[in-house]
Write a structure and sequence with these properties.
The complex is a heterodimer of chains A (about 400) and B (about 375). Chain A has about 400 residues and is an alpha/beta fold. Chain A contains 14 helices and 15 strands. In chain A, helix 3 packs across helix 5, helix 6 runs parallel beside helix 7 and helix 8 runs antiparallel to helix 9. Chain A is elongated. In chain B, about 40% of the residues lie in helices and about 15% in strands. Chain B starts with a strand and ends with a helix. The chains are: A alpha/beta (about 400), B alpha/beta (about 375).
């Protein structure tokens, strides 16, 4: 018996004339993400994609876990592809779907026959398959209106497909169809969630992390790595730029008013990120900020940071509560990594009473004590690149 | 080359330990419970390791039970003693500065209904005999204290507690967690009336994955891990032979306690002297602490930051307390130190392999840290 995956791509179907290119991107993403499991052939027909293993020893369970995390897939099913022979179909259906059938209380069978030369009609196929299932799984009842599981038998040109319920996909748009942006990631709970949300809309990710050794530890850089490799399960590979930030933080602390420390620091992060993002073809920055969460995330404070941004700054969490953010971070399994107790650059030298209603003039004035351009230049040049898979 | 000053966390395995382990992994890999010649040979090696550890304490080999770790030895002792004696009383006397592998067990027993007295240390981390005198009563079934505190090195009066227990007509068993003291201090459990004593191999240049529990002859405790009945039923599970044989090899090759002690004492004194005139450094360990451990605070530099800084410079020390975001050290808190000192504490711990040159290098890096990290 051969097993395949049938994919419903949802929103892409609405894309009119661009649909082909969206589908091609999704197919490419699926191939690339499944590369570790094995080679596959992908066929697009109407709004369904068929993923077929092209190698022996292909681990379908592993492939399914990966497919669940590919954006642009509304739902999918694994299906058995068998010979177009009623005996084979009757023998296969109760066995192949045994796991799902044992958990269900009720079922129905739907048959589709696109090959009209097949000797049985669709209702006949349904009835026979239903009987075969009942013989093997005595606890089941037939319920044609509200079944726990719908068994579908589809007789096509070359094969008959047998499949159970549809599994929900990750939704969203295929990564690569929504442009490229850079996420500023610290190691907290929010930024990986923001990154994931943007990737869900098809955005390819780069990442920028600010490290301040010895105030931040190698463990906190490892944490950022681990967070991004979790996000990369959804977004595909991420180019991570780690920026040396100690010198800038120490210069700010030594030369600027304490209550403005965080904002001046955030403005440096923006300036450095602009440069790195531009150099690498990103058209926007992403942050995990949410309004009012901390002093640097009040509306006036965000205005002060945005004043030095030279491209759009996307903040997908801006109107979300911490609890909602945590719920997503648990779902995408970044939460347990985020709560590892290491300092990040944002918690180093935090002022006792940060200013929540800063005036931009005050910031500009305070920054005059620093050679901003030279510091930015040095940090950008010192950035280290790694590819997170 | 790394300057390794975190020997209370773990030590570098000595060559004899490494060689022995490799031999047991590659050639003599039998299970000591097996009845064929490979098993017989393993059993012989196990017996010889037991003899070596027993000799180091001047006790009978039948009193030594190998465990998978120091933590396992402590768990076995604390739970085993409390459960064996629970009909004789329900009070446990311990200290507020025990290692978690003892403290968490006693917390669990407290949740089961035992009454627990936790003796607080003075500002030097010391606990006096009279504090035990006041706490132990006829209902006390277990007294558990560490020989040497793992964070500041204070030496507790473990050798004087048996007399207290006897005077108080208490049925209590005396458990000593000697993981930081074994092979560093002369400890004769029989002479001190210790009933149960925990040790760990990797703190004394053996490998991780082996510990030992001394159980005085005639003392009965209930096993905590059940199974095939190895180690006389007290610690079931196939013995980790490479680790156990390496444990014995380390004990043998360490030799005289006194010679290593003198070397480390001189290093400790030298370091104390060198840092005495650095204004932001405060010493948290008492004068009379075991010289293997020196706890200091670099005031205004959070522990984690100085650990990172030294690490960047090839020097390994331990954060005296967890990082700033984590919880504060129980020991330093119990000693009543200021938060400023607790949050900037680091633990320096020595071995006989450390040198005076390493101390000089460390001291100069402390001074650099002050220059680079302190806002002046």
């Amino acid at each position: 018996m051969k097993e395949i995956i049938l994919i419903k791509n949802g929103e892409i179907a609405l894309k009119g004339l661009n649909r082909n290119s969206f589908e091609a991107t999704l197919a490419k993403n699926i191939k690339r993400r499944l590369a570790d499991v094995g080679k596959v052939n992908i066929l697009c027909q109407q709004s369904t994609m068929t993923v077929e293993p092209a190698e022996d020893g292909f681990d379908m369970d592993e492939a399914i876990e990966i497919i669940k995390k590919v954006f642009g897939i509304a739902g999918f099913q694994r299906a058995a592809a068998v010979e177009k022979d009623m005996d084979v179909i009757l023998a296969t259906a109760p066995e192949y779907l045994a796991d799902q059938l044992e958990e269900a209380k009720s079922f129905k069978v739907e048959a589709k026959r696109s090959d009209k030369r097949f000797p049985l009609t669709s209702p006949e196929i349904s009835r026979n398959v239903g009987e075969a299932i009942l013989r093997k799984h005595h606890h089941l009842k037939v319920d044609v209106h509200n079944p726990d599981i719908t068994v579908t038998v589809e007789v096509r040109d070359s094969f008959a497909f047998i499949r159970g319920n549809q599994i929900r996909g990750a939704g969203g748009m295929p990564v690569g169809t929504g442009g490229k942006a850079a996420i500023l990631i610290s190691g907290g709970i929010d930024s990986p969630v923001a990154a994931w949300m943007m990737a869900k809309r098809g955005v390819t990710l780069d990442a920028i992390h600010f490290a301040s050794p010895p105030f931040t530890s190698p463990q906190s850089e490892q944490k950022v790595h681990d967070l991004l490799s979790q996000v990369a399960k959804y977004s595909g590979n991420i180019a991570l730029f780690t920026v040396p930030f100690t010198d800038i933080q120490q210069k700010i602390r030594a030369n600027c008013p304490e209550d403005l420390f965080t904002l001046i620091m955030r403005r440096f992060m923006m300036r450095i990120s602009n440069r790195i993002a531009q150099r690498n073809g990103c058209s926007a920055l992403i942050t995990g900020e949410s309004i009012g969460q901390v002093a640097s995330q009040t509306m006036p404070a965000l205005a002060c940071t945005d004043a030095v941004a030279e491209m759009p700054v996307f903040r997908p969490l801006i109107a979300m509560d911490k609890e909602e953010i945590i719920r997503i971070s648990r779902k995408i399994e970044t939460f347990d990594i985020s709560i590892r107790p290491y300092e990040d650059c944002c918690t180093v030298f935090t002022p006792k009473h940060p200013r929540t209603r800063p005036k931009i003039e005050m910031l500009i004035e305070s920054e005059k004590a620093l050679d901003v351009d030279a510091l930015v230049e040095e940090a950008v040049n010192g950035a280290r690149l790694e590819i997170i898979r | 080359m790394a300057i390794y000053l975190d020997n209370s966390a773990t030590t570098k395995p000595c060559k004899a330990a490494a060689d022995t382990a490799l031999r047991l992994i590659t050639d003599e890999y039998g299970n000591p419970s097996s009845l064929h010649f490979m098993g017989f040979e393993a059993d012989r090696i196990l017996g010889s390791a037991r003899q070596t550890v027993a000799d180091s304490l001047k006790v009978e080999p039948s009193c030594i039970y190998f465990t998978p770790s120091g933590t396992a030895a402590n768990n076995t002792a604390v739970f085993g003693a409390a459960k064996a004696l629970r009909r004789r009383g329900n009070r446990i006397v311990t200290t507020a500065i025990e290692h978690p592998s003892v403290a968490r067990c006693i917390d669990a027993l407290e949740a089961e209904g035992f009454e627990v007295v936790r003796l607080a240390p003075d500002t030097d981390g010391n606990i006096s005999v009279s504090q035990f005198e006041n706490a132990v009563n006829e209902k006390t079934v277990l007294v558990s204290l560490m020989a040497v505190n793992n964070e500041v090195g204070s030496v507790l009066p473990f050798d004087k507690i048996k007399k207290v227990i006897t005077r108080k007509n208490s049925p209590a068993l005396l458990h000593v967690d000697a993981i930081q003291g074994y092979m560093k201090l002369e400890i004769k459990p029989e002479k001190c009336g210790i009933d149960l004593m925990s040790m760990s191999a990797h703190k004394i240049h053996g490998l991780k994955g082996a510990g030992a529990l001394y159980i005085r002859k005639g003392v009965r405790i209930l096993p905590h891990i059940l199974g095939g009945g190895q180690e006389n039923g007290i610690v079931s599970g196939t013995q980790a032979m490479p680790n156990i044989a390496a444990f014995a090899a380390a004990v043998e090759s360490l030799g005289s306690i006194e010679k290593r002690y003198d070397h480390v004492k001189a290093l400790n004194a030298y370091l104390r002297e060198q840092i005495s005139d650095i204004d932001f450094v405060t010493i948290n360990s008492p004068e009379e602490a075991l010289p293997y451990i020196l706890n200091i605070s670099l005031i205004c530099i959070p522990s984690q930051v100085s650990v990172n800084y030294f690490s960047q410079n090839g020097i390994c020390v331990s954060a005296g307390s967890a990082c700033a975001k984590g919880h504060r050290s129980d020991t330093l808190t119990a000693m009543g130190l200021s938060n400023e000192r607790i949050d900037s504490a680091i633990r320096v711990s020595f071995s006989y392999e450390n040198t005076k040159d390493e101390m000089d290098c460390f001291v100069s890096k402390i001074k650099d840290a002050g220059q680079e990290l302190l806002k002046r």
